[in-house]
Task: structure prediction
Amino acid sequence: MNYSSYEIMVVSAARLLRNDDVCFVGIGAPSAACNLAKLTNAPDITLIYESGTIGTAPDVLPLSIGDGELCSTALTTVSGVEMFNYWLQGGRITVGFLGAAQLDRFGNINTTVIGNYEKPKVRLPGGGGAPEIASHSKQVYIIMKQSPRSFVNKIDFFTSYGFGNGFNERSDKGIQTKGPQLLVTDMAIWKPDPTTKEFEVVALNPGVTREAMQESVGWPIRYSVTLDENTPPTKLELEVLRDLQERTRTAHSKTRNSGQ
Amino acid sequence: MSKFQPLSTAIKENLFSGSFVVFEGFTHLIPYAAAHETIRSGITDLTLARMTPDVIYDQMIGMGMVSKLIFSYAGNPGVGLLRRLRDAVENDWPRPLVIEEHSHAAIANSYEAGASNLPLAILRGYQGAGLKGINANIKSIECPFTGEILAAVPALRPDVAVIHAQKADSKGNVLVEGIIGVQKQAVLSARKAIVTVEEIVPELNTHPNACIIPSWAIASISIVPGGAHPSYTQGYYERDNSSYLEWDKISSDRDAFRVWMQKNVLEQGPEVFNQRVEHLRD
Result:
């Protein structure tokens, strides 16, 4: 079956999730990957959205982090204070998903500003829950498309800390969690080198060349000595993902124009 | 004891130019009707705080009513950036905006500290994060028991908290349910609270652990059916997702923004909200 680069990205992330994972889920690709995992290889996975919905099982993908569907299908819904203090800071989250406007080779993330903080070229939404998701989740998974604008040599602002300048900087700061352990993109799967903590490519998606990789990334890419080719999505994975997206489209088209 | 009042009276009696106000809600139960009434009231120089300033804060900032914003995520939920806020931060239009930026965990704890009558909140936060370097209100504190260095932020103590909720009983006790965010903490951190509700019922008839705000912790209650539109009220009507998409277009142009605000906010009253949610009711 033919598939898009977005589909292989979502499927690759979903495959790495497990039944005993407790995921702090973000909107977009992370949400698609977590719900696909729930419908395929990890039916008992626990999904938590930062709006306070714990153990949620939406039939369609939410458009916002606080859609009613997340609450009405959740095991329980808690206050914002409880969410961030007990469940996140309390160390209950096994996988925190993050996206980025800018990402560097050590998994540091910027979603705050492009340019200078005081007088930014582009004022982005900011960190929200991300600074603490990055430090309190047992591990962080990043899902995002590769492009030279977002995979940069130096990020403009440290919204969420990954490994800083690499090596033991993270643990030297007293952060006890593992940090970014996986980067899934539309072109490849990356993991941090155990010593330097720099992301290196462990698997290339079928048909992706090293030249195309380097054109989309702003630092010299390192490849694992055991570089693999990523397995294409199966027919079942694609069907489940496409069904989910179709249900989502149908559901959200119902809230039509209000005539304001 | 809370007073049942028309929304315009509730806003006039409690909000003034220069007030520190929070309109809370996390995607769900956003107090749109109260924010629009505030815009019509003509007050200015507000300090606003909120975890997720979304379209209502974009509107107030674009109307030039806001001098300072305390926040942790300034986005149009599920859509993208807030264009009026961007214009204020990037170009000082229509006036400069002072920002104090935090993380969600810090703001949630700041409300909790305010509601608990404490001067500060302590959290294990901002580790390695850049905000610590640019926000003077993020400081460090040493745990006197373990020596661990933790983050400290000041408590939030707003003059007024404004929220939308499902219902009040005839005595003015309010029920909030579904995604409850930090509304209870925000209300109890503030000197006064204004609540808009979908309806008044004789009894709340709920379970012992429901999120209830007692009448005597609220200054004013106004009945505004549909008052959270285009956000939603669980059990009453769905989120109007297309309005959030439209806002991205309207807010991208200064003139289009002003024309839209004139027609849809300044020339309207709270009664229009009921008809705006008619097609979104179950």
User: Anything to note?
Assistant: Residues 110-154 of chain B form one domain. The first strand of chain B starts at residue 3 and ends at 4.
